[in-house]
Specification:
287 residues; alpha+beta; Membrane-bound Lytic Murein Transglycosylase D, Chain A; 3 domains; 14 strands; 18% strand; elongated
């Protein structure tokens, strides 16, 4: 009998949690009444008229009807529907956010937009949380006593692995999205080594290394979409390397023995010699 009562209580509690969860995750809506205007509705819910128009795809000339249901707040990331003639900079200015930040949030490779295209105006909570957590973790590592005891190669690989699952973004340089050359540049910067921004320029620096002489921490280069070095990763040893691959993918570890990479491999470059850091400068290049 006691077990039956306990089970009923459990089921009731679960049902209540589901109900509250549904409400918590539901968008906030409002049904238009006689005399309502967008301005009045926006003040009622402490949101801007622009946001309400965006959420409901309303034009300035749109007329509200009694009984019409409007979404006034969304539980997920805020979105905006691109209109004809609008640009990234114009939309960013409208919502008081940076143009580059808006591109990062939406994983955009260019400034080109299409009418009807949906844009996120803020990062999804879990992505934003992951970004904050990673930045905090890297900061703590850099300030730790343990990192000072590690050699350059070990530090490099430690930081390289921290970026696993960060999404690829052409031209991206942040945790929200990063391309191959920005990824290796960022990882090297965390151990105090400065290298150029692009794979093409990176290949012009450092000590040339052939396939059989690769060592942990060397950069490995490939010709992919161009005749010049257009892709780069960090060698991990045992024919493995870590890189930010291409659009739709994330930072990950792959094998140099993969046919695709065997065919396109053009060489390695070494920026860490005998486990001591060297900074690439014009003087070094000229000398």
């Amino acid at each position: 009998m006691t077990g039956e009562i306990s089970m009923k209580r459990f089921c009731l509690a679960a049902a209540i949690l589901l109900i509250f969860s549904a409400y918590a995750n539901a968008d906030l809506t409002y049904t238009i009444k006689k005399g309502d205007t967008l301005s009045r509705v926006s003040k009622k819910f402490n949101v801007s008229v622009i946001e309400i128009r965006s959420l409901n795809n309303l034009e300035k000339s749109s007329i509200l009807k009694i009984g019409q249901t409007l979404t006034v707040k969304m539980t997920g990331p805020k979105t905006y529907t691109v209109r004809k003639g609008e640009s990234i900079s114009r939309i960013a200015k409208k919502f008081n956010i940076g143009a580059n930040e808006l591109k990062d949030i939406n994983m955009l490779d260019s400034d080109l937009l299409k009418p009807g295209q949906k844009l996120f105006l803020e990062a999804e909570p879990e992505i934003e949380t992951a970004k904050i957590n990673l930045e905090e973790e890297i900061k703590n590592i850099l300030e730790s006593e343990e990192i000072a005891q590690m050699n350059a190669k070990d530090r490099l690989i430690l930081f390289a692995n921290k970026f696993i699952n960060i999404p690829y973004k052409f031209g991206g340089t942040s945790i929200m999205g990063i391309d191959c050359s920005a990824y290796v540049q960022k990882v090297y910067s965390l151990i105090g080594i400065t290298i150029p921004r692009s794979a093409r320029l990176q290949f012009e620096e450092g000590e040339l290394v052939d396939r059989d002489s690769l060592s942990i921490g060397d950069l490995v280069f490939f010709r992919t979409y161009a005749s010049f070095p257009s892709h780069v990763g960090i060698y991990l040893g045992n024919d493995l390397f870590i890189h930010s691959p291409s659009k739709g993918k994330k930072v990950r570890i792959e094998s140099l023995k993969t046919p695709y990479y065997i065919k396109r491999f053009i060489g390695g470059k070494r920026f860490i010699i005998d486990n001591s850091e060297i900074e690439i400068t014009k003087q070094l290049h000229e000398g």
